[in-house]
Amino acid sequence: MAGKVVPHFHNTNGVDAIKIGAKEFMCIGARPPQDHPHVFLDMGADDNIICPYCSTLYHFDAALASAESNPADCAWAPDAA
Question: Which CATH superfamily is domain 8-70 in?
């Protein structure tokens, strides 16, 4: 069983870059039903990463909580199963 929730982010509005409070997360591209395969991304020691599917640039921002983003509407919570 998973011990933590992996935050999900999207770029439905097509912004140039998204600041997020997590270094390990899922990019879904756009909100469903226009989403791409939900891909797990890990920044490792870096502070940014580009999604290989949608080319969204994500920047780590330590001032944000792990599930927060800037712009704020780029954070997405999947429906509970």
Answer: q5lls5 like domains (2.60.260.40)
